[in-house]
Amino acid sequence: MALIFIRTAIIFFVLLLVMRLMGKSQIGEMQPFEFVISLVIAELACIPMADTSIPLFYGIIAIVTIFILHQIVWLLELWFKPVKKVVSGKPSVVINKDGIDEFQLKKNNLDVSDLIESMRVAGYFNLDDVYYGLYEANGSFSALEKEEHAASSLPLTLIDRGKADEQNCTRCGFNTDRLKQFLAEQNAKLKEVVVMTVNGEGRVYFQKRGEKYKILQVEVNGQW
Question: Whole-angstrom Cα distance, residue 21 to residue 27?
């Protein structure tokens, strides 16, 4: 028991030292390759801690080797910019002056609901609250906000990439006939709509595939 305690303590302090040398303290700040390295280090650390038949020195050597590989990749990224793009990726602009960029969303395995969730976490409740929105290489969301943005009520998603949310449509008073009429007025078919949201005041964000988004006003069933 005492031996396992001592081995665990040694591995713990070695890991702490290595992670500090890596220069990252929070997993949310890590680049993809750093996250992978952290997972590998954690796995390597568990083996010598629990199995006393494995020399402790072997575990430390493996962890230090991973750290050296991390430093090599870091130097390559520093000296050769193309390497950084390949290893860590690059930011993806998912909202621009025309609205949502579907191609960038698909490229990053995201959909409109993922984007809306990221915006809410960042404090933006309307899709047009920002001039530009992007996902950084580490997966965090950043935005250039509009000065006048203000959320008066929570927008509900009625259409997400060509599919209608029947529950939200009913809540807003958009039955099938009314939704068809609205789309006809916008000269759009359901499958052509990237996104449509409406808030409690009837403010609509509407974007047809291949076109710039529109801000419209409709009547809704009360507020929420």
Answer: 14
Beta bridge mates, 130: 145
- Look at residue 9 and give its three-state secondary structure: helix
Closest CA to 203 of 161, 167, 150: 150
- H/E element, 13: helix 2-22
The token duo for 116 is 């809306």
**How deeply is 48 buried, as exposed, middle or buried, from its count of CB atoms within 10 A (0-12, 13-18, 19+)?**
buried
Average pLDDT of the chain is 80
Nearest to 96 by CA among 207, 217, 189, 199: 207
Q: What is the DSSP letter of 95?
A: E
Of 185, 161, 169, which Cα lies nearest the Cα of 220? 169
Q: How far apart are CA 72 and CA 75, in angstroms?
A: 5
- DSSP annotation of 115 reads H
Which range of 39-43, 105-109, 110-114, 206-210 scores highest in mean pLDDT? It is: 206-210
Residue 89's identity, in one-letter code, is G
- Strand partners for 164: 159
Neighbouring residues of 112: CB distance < 8 A, sequence distance ≥ 6: 100, 105, 157, 160, 161, 194, 195
pTM for the model stands at 0.63
In tens, the pLDDT along 55-79 reads 777 777 877 887 787 788 778 877 8
Dihedral in degrees, nearest 10, Cα atoms 10, 22, 89, 61: -40
